[in-house]
Design goal:
7 helices, binds heme C, 56% helix, single chain, mainly alpha
Length: 162
């Protein structure tokens, strides 16, 4: 009995640590939260962001941001799922910061010659990946856009009806 309780506790701790590792836990300094994207999202900016993302990020994070790529599987640390709900807790400035500085040793910084506006265009596209995934999840759960429900409720609801 004692042993199985212990095993359960170890399992729970292990799972928590694993979950922490796999998603967007803060790598950027707190000050990065305050950085503001000078660009406004528009079809042109998103198109530019998507192209840059395709060249600099998709090998690891995949075109859909879900990091289901052969390169991702070879990484010592699993690349974050950029379409996941946990991305909602990352500020624009934090995304900008990790793109610019990388996350040693697993994620390279963007080449130093990349202009600031390109980095912000990538940031806009990273947000778009999450926006697309959220719309997909809501549609699958049969919830029309404009419904003001938090994502965790939608996920619970989806599991119940599945
Ligand atoms: C060589 C593979 C690789 C490439 C290329 C790469 N990443 Fe990553 N990325 C990772 C890994 C691995 C992590 C998880 C790092 C960790 O948690 O220690 C990560 C994490 C992230 C995170 C979450 C950061 C956080 O604070 O948790 C974001 C956002 C991100 N990457 C965006 C990008 C963008 C945008 C690009 C392109 C400019 C990019 N990555 C290029 C491997 C990569």
């Amino acid at each position: 009995m004692k042993c199985s309780l212990c095993a359960a506790a170890i399992l729970i701790c292990g799972l928590t640590a694993w979950a922490h590792e796999g998603h967007g836990t803060a790598h950027a300094p707190v000050a990065a939260k305050k950085l503001i994207n000078p660009l406004t999202s528009s079809p042109d900016q998103l198109q530019a962001g998507e192209a840059l993302y395709g060249k600099q990020c998709a090998s690891c994070h995949g075109p859909d941001g879900k990091s289901n790529t052969a390169v991702a599987r070879k990484q010592p640390v699993r690349p974050a799922n950029l379409a996941d709900y946990q991305m909602d807790s990352m500020a624009d400035g934090e995304i900008y910061w990790v793109v610019k500085h990388g996350i040693p040793p697993s994620m390279p910084a963007i080449p130093a010659a990349t202009g600031d506006s390109s980095v912000w265009q990538i940031q806009l596209w990273v947000r778009e990946l999450r926006i697309k995934q959220r719309a997909f999840e809501r549609a699958r759960a049969g919830i029309t856009s404009g419904t003001c429900l938090p994502d965790f409720l939608i996920r619970t609801f989806r599991k119940t009806i599945r």
